[in-house]
Amino acid sequence: MDKVDISVIVPVYNARRRLEQCLASLAGQDYPSFEVLLVEDGSTDGSGAICRQWAERDPRFRLLHQPRNGGVSAARNAGLAAAQGRYITFCDSDDQVEPGYLSALMAAGEESLVVTGIYNLWQDGARTPRQQYPAQVRPMDGAGVCAMLEQGAFNYVYAKRYERARLVAGGIAFAPDLSLGEDTLFVAEYARLCPQVCFVPGLHYGYHQGAEGTLSGFRRGYVSQLEQANARVLAALTPCCPNLEQSEAWQRRMWSLFYYALFAAASSDWSVGEKLEQIRHVMGREDYRQMVRQRDGVLAGYAPAERAVLRMGSGWLLLALTAWTDRRKTREHQR
To answer: Burial, 13: exposed, middle or buried (Cβ in 10 Å; 0-12, 13-18, 19+)?
Structure first.
């Protein structure tokens, strides 16, 4: 294949259920100059055969085989090494993109980092906005970093455009030692090398939301894994924003971590003892205790009774979280 403007990297592992839909959405792009790199990571459900069929019938698709299942970071790194495009973007194998996805990313001009919007795709076919941005170009200084944090723009590696030469020059790749937070770290390490970020309006990337909701992927060690990732993200972004750790944007990011961990532990199938251990781990952090004591800051919108619950002992907090989680599940079921 001749050189192309942009390479789309798709890591594939046991994605048969939605893989055809994903690849068809990429084949239907209205932008002319692109390639799709399918990095097959040792699937056992027939995904490899689907990838091979697409590579055989569409010259824009290339198939890369990993020697063994190495995880999504290793698969994406293999795609980065093989990419021929001037720019890079990513798509997960169970998601889909709008026909104008690549056109929107490429219309942004020469900006170093381009970010566009994401929508949720629900089981019943409904679509709801997940991340959307007004059109703007911001310098990658302290204000720009905080704006990206506030808008959740560091959270996803997809729905973005990266300059391949800048990635290579900076030695930017996915951290294989992280199983959580690796997307955010990749975006942060790249962003610190960029003079500016361009936000493109519109919802161009479709994220398939599981029936179980966002708590379904919770796993043991979640908080400790993200603590490691966040420390590295902070180190990457601090040169752009020396006071980042004290900023409200960073505090909101940390509170999101705590909030998710507390509710996910309460809704998990763990034993009561394991749930309490997770809750105590979160409640034992000094930054958590400071947040729930403050009347303003990231919890300013919480009612006094809610803040009081978050200061309770772990057993009482578990009971309250379980009740809240049960009500949430009931609302999602009714939806």
So the answer is: buried
Model pTM score: 0.87
Beta bridge partners of 190: none
- Joined together, the tokens standing for residue 226 give 């993200």
Q: How many CB atoms lie within 10 A of CB 301?
A: 6
List 127's β-bridge partners, or say none.
Answer: 121
Structural domain spans, the chain: 6-208, 247-334
Q: Does domain 6-208 sit in CATH 3.40.190.10?
A: no
CA dihedral 273, 275, 276, 280 (to 10 degrees): 140
> pLDDT tens digits for 281-322?
888 888 888 888 876 777 777 777 777 777 777 777 777 777
Render pLDDT for 95-137 as a digit per residue (tens, 0 to 9). Answer: 999 999 999 999 988 878 999 999 999 988 899 999 999 999 9
**Tokens representing 285?**
């952090």
Task: Kindly compute the dihedral angle of the four CA atoms of residues 197, 96, 50, 186, in this order, to the nearest 10 degrees.
Answer: 30
